[in-house]
Amino acid sequence: MAVEYQVTDDVVRVFIRGEIDHHRTLTLRKEIDEILLAHRPERVLLDLSGTDFCDSSGLGLILGRVRVAESIGAKVELESVSNRVRKVLDAAGARQFLHYA
Amino acid sequence: MRPKVENHLTITLSAKSENESLARVIVAGFLVASSACAEDLADLKTAVSEAVTNAVVHAYRARTDGRIKLDLKLYSDCRVRIAVTDYGAGMEDVALCRTPFYTTDREHERSGMGFAIMETFSDRVRVTSRVGKGTRVILEKRLKAAECAA
Question: In sequence order, which residues have a C-beta less than 8 Å from that of residue B100 and are 6 or more positions away?
């Protein structure tokens, strides 16, 4: 499943839909990195409106994209995060590492 | 009086990443049948996803024939017990592996927070492991009694 994304000026918005688990991160990681490296935006928005499940593998995916984005000078923010996903990210102690739009 | 088992499900899955979502569906189905509330169901789905993923990623690294057994029980006191068992590599130091942020697979962006999430979303997590024999993770949670079918 190809990841949908939008490019507006220096902002790339990536829509991550469906459950974010270890199995899906195997392909999501590569697809999102290809988008970031092709467009080299200043700002990356990870839109999570289409997902209500994320476990620690999903957190690893998000943190990995933050690292890749920072390596090309971009800032990553999470957008439209459900209460459920936010609960998991908070339980993993990730609040200090993530920015919410 | 000792609580009795009201319902019991045992199933064995291939240790493939595709089956992580299947494991969640199985757990959700069992919990729906147990009249678990949405929050308890979501919490246990997440905890089981962590345990199954650990088995897929760590227990059978180079093998394709690994198995993961799920054993789910609902007790008359509304407690759910879910055991996730693999027959793979095992852990030499369980306490170290349960340390937040610890992972042996940083290359693949493992966050090392699987056990922390299991502990947050369960009342109790027990782990037993033997090197070369496998690992069993037991998650227990008391369902909110008003909805529990037990």
Answer: A93, B112, B113, B115, B116
The reported pTM is: 0.92
Please judge whether B111 and A59 are an interchain contact, meaning their C-beta atoms are less than 8 angstroms apart.
Answer: yes
How far apart, in whole angstroms, are the C-alpha atoms of residue A21 and residue A55? 6
Q: Which of B46, B68, B103 to mutate to test the interface with A (most CBs of A within 10 A)?
A: B46
Strand, coil or helix: what is B145? coil
pLDDT tens track for A62-92:
999 999 999 999 999 999 999 999 999 988 8
* Distance in Å, alpha carbon of B117 to nearest chain A alpha carbon: 6
From start to end of A16-93, where are the E strands?
43-47, 75-79
What residues of chain A, 76 to 95, have a C-beta less than 8 Å from chain B? Answer: 84, 88, 91-94
Strand partners, A89: none
- Strand ranges inside B32-145, DSSP E: 67-75, 79-86, 124-130, 134-142
Tokens representing residue A69 in the block: 């984005």
Q: Which of A59, A69, A70 is nearest to A32 (CA)?
A: A69
ipTM of the complex: 0.91
Q: What are the beta bridge partners of residue B13?
A: B68
Q: What are phi and psi of A63, to 5 degrees?
A: -65, -35
Q: Could you count the other beta carbons within 10 Å of the beta carbon of residue B61?
A: 12
pLDDT tens string B78-91: 999 999 999 999 99
Dump the DSSP string for B98-112. Answer: TSTT--S-GGGT--S
